[in-house]
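Dear colleague,

Following up on yesterday's call, I've attached the two folding results inline so they're easy to grep. Please treat them as preliminary; we haven't cross-checked anything against experimental data yet. The first protein's sequence and structure tokens come first.
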Amino acid sequence: MGYSIADLNQMSQSDFVAALGAVFEETPAIAERAWNHRPFSNQDDLHRKMVGVVNQLDKAEQLSLIQAHPDLGSKAKMADASVAEQAEVGLDRLTASEYDRFHQLNQAYKIQFGFPFIIAVKNHTKASILQAFEHRLKNDAEAERQQALLEIIEIARFRLHSLIG
């Protein structure tokens, strides 16, 4: 369903959260808080205000947001948006060896950083995701925490774009 900015500006907080609560993975509180920053002049303004909410979260809340994301290529239950995004680049159709490689990299990444590897898959292919895994495993924890938040912000931008007509 496509929402207009005018529709979103007129919604009650509960309707707004129902419409946009999944923009940030399993974290409807971001939409709940962003509602207080209405009116939104356009989609970019809405995104910017939602990002402002993310930036105001303390480190523990940001870590919870990061940890709400699923492993790439996982067969675990995940949000509908994540399922669709991963399917677009074929992560739902991995060969056995590709699945093993993604699983191995997901585990190594989580052991090293304490949260899942996050990347805006719409900007990538399976091959470039694997390259990013290899490259980012060389980073320090703070650099990866910041990168994860940047990727989440990009994912949210894509999700908003798909929801707003």
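Below is the second protein, in the same order (sequence, then structure):
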Amino acid sequence: MNIWAHKPLAKNVEFDSNMMWVELIDGRKLGIPLAYFPRLLNATPEQCQLYEMSGGGSGLHWDQIDEDINVENLLMGIGDRTHSYSHSERLAA
């Protein structure tokens, strides 16, 4: 069974100093801490605005900072999966 009645699709993306706001076509608005995506957190405001939507809004892509985000994953609370932690970092966490 599919948990999504309709596939979540982005309509618009906005930023403030520490949040990314993703407006979905069904009217919901997701607030995601930029700390979940270090590349966006460290990007300039201009770089953050240079995104592309793919798959009719199912994906977000920032070419300049090499960031790709799946909108469905945002709803599941999944952040950046590209950072691999060393064994010592895991023990300290």
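For the second protein, one point worth flagging: The helical segments are 38-41, 45-49, 71-75, 87-92.

Best wishes,
A.L.
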